[in-house]
Design brief:
The complex is a heterodimer of chains A (about 150) and B (about 300). Chain A is globular. In chain A, about 45% of the residues lie in helices and about 15% in strands. With about 150 residues, chain A is of the alpha/beta class. Chain A has one domain: Rossmann fold, CATH 3.40.50. By secondary structure, chain B is of the alpha/beta class. Chain B has a 5-stranded mixed β-sheet with strand order 2-1-3-4-5. Classes of the chains: A alpha/beta (about 150), B alpha/beta (about 300).
């Protein structure tokens, strides 16, 4: 039995984190973490997209609707985009979308943005571990999940 | 002012410069204004302009533009705020500046909703400030900024330096509250949403031929008037207007359940103004902020 499964039995709540990552940097970074046999929290569900520019705000809304407790959005560092400028466009979108969600009253500890390159497996591992811990402390996203029962 | 407008419209139609004038007219009982489409010079006398002319007629330059173009080149009666919308439409290549003749009206403010005019009288010179919407209190385009013909005498009205009025006060009040309180506030409002999409239909900038709300393969936005889908819809609508909304206030006016949509639109407009130094609708040659980028955009929130 792995350490994580034991943990689950103790604390009870394991958050679901959805990670929207780009194909060229963060996915490769996560892959490197795997091939390097690094261990990290299994709470993260990775969704691979061609580019962070492909991430529509509705993806994030849908993730919360479907029961995610936290969302992580990650892609190439500025200047490293495989499609040259996709992440710059995405950054603009997030600046607005983040403010919109904050204004709606969604806790920004549940939505994280990051740049992780293909070589930053350690950064990816730390990121996932930190976010999982943080969301775990917050507990289930009862506000959003509660919408279904209303 | 109305006489000059009618005169100009008549001239344009007689010379054949335009084939149709989109403007405001009275309804049968002369209690409300309604859009009119004047195609004959002798009908130009039907045109009116007063504080009840709340509609943003630039709506007819988007999804309905094909029908208008079938009649011929249009002229449009537009207040400063409507011209802002036309400027955004031009910047987004929805039409060309030369496709439309803009009859810019010098405006001294309109009413928030036409129903509020009851009992104010038949003198349409000015609007009592308490029934004027926030946009008029902060209007810096009372003298039309883009127009082929300017109708009316230049006004010297100066808007306050810091945006003021109900919408901006409420935004500041909400910003001070905790996340949980803001959430309760919005959930209460979005709970009333009946998914009639009036906000979308009246918005001159919601011009997609097919809206994502109507797509069901996959279904991004739930169609039933349920809180979960309501929230998704209202967030998506606000997000799509980021950096484009010109605060004409038509969505909130059209909303049958009075959701304060101006709050969320203006909040994003303030964010865009601060982050990208952009104000929508002032220059038709500038790209909307969400289709361009700057290498120096703030990224303190990205780890």
């Amino acid at each position: 039995m792995s350490s994580h499964t034991q943990q689950e039995q103790v604390s009870g709540f394991e958050p679901k984190i959805v990670a929207f990552v780009c194909n060229w940097c963060t996915y490769a970074g996560a892959d490197l973490a795997g091939t390097s046999r690094m261990e990290y929290k299994p709470n993260v569900r990775i969704i691979k997209l061609p580019c962070t520019g492909r991430i529509d705000p509705l993806f994030i809304i849908k993730a919360f609707e479907k029961g995610a407790d936290g969302v992580l959005v990650s892609g190439c560092h500025p200047g490293d985009c495989h499609y040259t400028t996709g992440n710059y466009h995405a950054r603009r979108r997030w600046i607005a979308f983040k403010s919109l969600l904050e204004f709606t009253g969604i806790d920004m500890k549940r939505l994280h943005f990051s740049w992780v390159s293909a070589s930053e497996a350690i950064k990816w591992v730390d990121l996932v571990n930190n976010i999982t811990d943080e969301v775990k402390k917050l507990g289930p996203f009862v506000e959003y999940k509660g919408l279904s029962e209303r | 002012m109305e006489n000059t407008l009618r005169q100009k419209a008549k001239e344009l139609l007689e010379k054949g410069d335009v084939k149709v004038v989109i403007g405001f007219g009275w309804n049968n009982r002369k209690t409300r204004t309604t859009p009119v489409f004047i195609t004959k010079p002798e009908d130009a006398d039907k045109l009116i302009f007063n504080p009840l002319c709340v509609n943003n007629l630039s709506l007819y330059l988007t999804r309905k533009f094909a029908d208008i173009k079938a009649l011929g080149k249009p002229a449009i009666v537009a207040k400063g705020c409507d011209i802002k919308t036309i400027a955004v439409l031009i910047s987004e290549s929805q039409l060309k500046r030369e496709d439309v003749v803009i009859l810019g009206m010098v405006c001294s403010g309109v009413v928030y909703k036409q129903e509020l005019w009851k009992g104010v009288g038949t003198d349409f010179k000015s609007v009592p400030t308490d029934i004027m919407p926030t946009k008029c209190h902060n209007c810096d385009v009372r003298n039309p900024h883009i127009a082929d013909v300017v109708v009316g005498e230049k006004t010297t009205f100066m808007p306050p330096d810091v945006p003021s009025g109900m919408v901006f006060d409420k935004i500041r009040e909400l910003d001070k509250k905790s996340g949980a309180e803001r959430w309760d506030f919005w959930i209460e409002h979005f709970n009333r949403c009946i998914k009639c999409y009036a906000c979308r239909q009246i918005c001159p900038l919601c011009y997609c031929e097919r809206c994502i709300a109507e797509k069901n393969m996959p279904q991004w936005i739930e169609t039933s008037a349920h809180l979960r889908g309501n929230l998704a819809w209202n967030l998506k609508r606000a997000m799509d207007l980021t950096g484009r909304c010109t605060f004409c206030g038509e969505c909130e006016r059209a909303c049958p359940v009075n959701i304060p949509l101006n709050l969320v639109n203006q909040k994003l407009a303030l964010v865009v103004r601060k982050a990208f130094e952009h104000r929508a609708g002032y220059d038709e040659k500038v790209h909307p902020p969400m289709i361009v980028f700057n290498m120096e955009d703030q990224e303190d929130f990205i780890k």
